[in-house]
Design a protein that fits this description.
- Helix 1 crosses helix 7 and helix 5 packs across helix 6.
- The chain is globular, with a radius of gyration of 19 Å.
- It has one domain: Rossmann fold (3-Layer(aba) Sandwich), CATH 3.40.50.970.
- Strand 1, helix 2 and strand 2 form a beta-alpha-beta unit.
- The N and C termini lie far apart (about 50 Å).
- It is an alpha/beta fold and about 270 residues long.
- This is 2-oxoglutarate ferredoxin oxidoreductase, beta subunit.
- Pfam families: TPP_enzyme_C (PF02775).
- Keywords: Oxidoreductase.
- GO terms for molecular function: oxidoreductase activity, acting on the aldehyde or oxo group of donors, iron-sulfur protein as acceptor; thiamine pyrophosphate binding.
Length: about 270
């Protein structure tokens, strides 16, 4: 299948602002699905509320546009009932780690076979540019006109500590790298987290004088470095890119199936 076969083209043009990075994330994701040769009838995408959540409306997969912060909860329900399906969960700052934070850490703890895509633009874009748990200190937002004093979550460290068995990070500037990481995340048997830094020129860029979309993407090239590179060793302030965690651990649905089998044997006796 071609990339366009995975799209609901009748819903275009999309509603994202000009220069928003989320369209690039969608592109990278569709190319990953295409290159893996996945049957779209076996894919389910769940999303919550926000700019990032609109992705589920543009893909021709089985999709659930759900409550704010509950995308992983819905995905867990689908995966438990139909473990053979591929679950993709795109989330923004709030869906993933504000109202959705509890679902995030417990999905990671369980190691359920779901691919979580955290589209990190460090702002609440749809509701007017409020700061988020991923904004960090010294950031201007509508709710922080004199800059934020809140520390941000590190998505990679949090996902790792919570038990995710595949954890990666990239940016919209590195679109091909994003496709490669998403392919590996989807194929991984367990809870996979791919954080993608995604520019928001409308709110974050404008308020923090980071320029237009092209300048923000160029900045991603300058503030990141591959995991294990000399540049990252010499400058720890850079954001690492690549795979941070890739390990095997019993997957939740598989283990649950064993419990069901034991229960059925017990009932038969």
């Amino acid at each position: 299948m071609a990339v366009q076969d995975y799209l609901r083209q009748r819903f275009f043009p999309h509603m994202w602002c000009p220069g928003c990075g989320h369209g690039t994330v969608l592109n990278s994701l569709l190319r990953a699905v295409e290159e893996l040769g996945l049957d779209k009838n076996n894919i389910v995408m769940t999303s919550g509320i926000g700019c990032s959540a609109r992705i589920s409306g543009y893909v021709d997969f089985h999709s659930l546009h759900t409550l704010h912060g509950r995308a992983l909860a819905f995905a867990t329900g689908v995966k438990m009932s139909k473990p053979e399906l591929t679950l993709l969960v795109p989330m923004g700052d709030g869906d993933a780690l504000a109202i959705g934070g509890n679902h995030f850490i417990h999905a990671a703890r369980r190691n359920i076979d779901i691919t979580a895509i955290v589209m990190n633009n460090r702002i609440y874009g749809m509701t007017g540019g409020q700061f988020s748990p991923l904004s960090g200190c010294g950031i201007k937002a509508t709710t922080a006109p004199y800059t934020t004093i809140d520390n941000n979550f590190d998505v990679v460290e949090l996902a790792t500590a919570a038990g995710a068995t595949f954890v990666a990070r990239t940016t919209t500037y590195h679109a091909k790298e994003a496709t490669s990481l998403l392919k590996k995340a989807i194929l991984h048997k367990g809870f996979s987290v791919v954080e993608i830094l995604s520019q928001c020129p409308t709110h974050f860029g404008r308020k923090n004088k980071e320029g237009d979309a092209a300048q923000m993407m160029e900045n991603y090239k300058n503030i990141t470095a591959p995991v294990g590179s000399k540049a990252l060793e010499e400058n720890p302030a850079l954001w690492g890119r690549g795979i941070f965690v890739e390990r095997e651990r019993p997957e939740y649905c598989t283990e649950y199936g064993k419990i069901v089998e034991l229960a059925m044997k017990g009932a038969a006796k």
